[in-house]
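Hey L., structure's done. Input below.
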Amino acid sequence: MLSRCPWCLAHPLLTDYHDREWGVPRPDDNAQFEHLLYEIFQAGLSWLTILKRREVFREVFAGFDPVLLAQWEAGRVEKLLQDRRLIRNRAKIEAVINNARHFLEIRAEFGCFSTFISRYKPKKRLSYNFESEIPVQTPEATALSQELKRRGFKFVGPTICYAHIQAVGLVNDHLTTCFRYKEVAEMQSKENLNS
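Output:
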C-alpha cells in the first residue's frame, strides 16, 4: 500500500487531487489563475468543498480565462449569486473579477504570472516528516500577499498565498514518507532547469 500525506485520506477526491496535482509545477497562466481562484473560494471552507465543485467553477468562470473574466460587469455577479451550484459569496465572486484584471497587469509587466510568482519561491528547500511540521504561511507567502494586495488583489492573505504556493509547485510539502514526495521533487527540478 502506498504511503500518502494523511490529509488526503478522508475522501477519494482528496486522494486523487493529492496523487495527481498537488505540488506539481504549473507554469501556465490559466492554471495559475485557476488555483488562485480555488484558494479564494476555499477561504473558511474545506478543500473537499472546492474539489466537489471544480467542474462547476470551470463552467461558470469561463475556463479560468482571466482575459474573459476581467471583462465581466456587475450584472454577471448578480447572475452568479443565483446559481445554487456555486459558493454564493458576493465578496469572493467580485474578488475573482477584480483579481483577473490585476492578474493581467502582472502578466503584462512580467510576461507571465509564473515569472512573477517564482520570485516568492523559498530560497531553502525544506522537507517534513509530520503534517504538524508544515506551516500554514511563510515569510515568502506573507511577502507575496503584501505585494498582491499592493497591486489591488482581494482575498490574498498569507495563508491563501501559501496554499497557492503549495498547489502550484513552488514548494514540495508532501511528507518525506509520501510516495509523491520524490516524484514531485523530480518534476520541480525539471521545471527549475527549464525556467
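The CA atoms of residues 58 and 64 lie 6 Å apart. The first helix runs from residue 12 to 20.

-- N.
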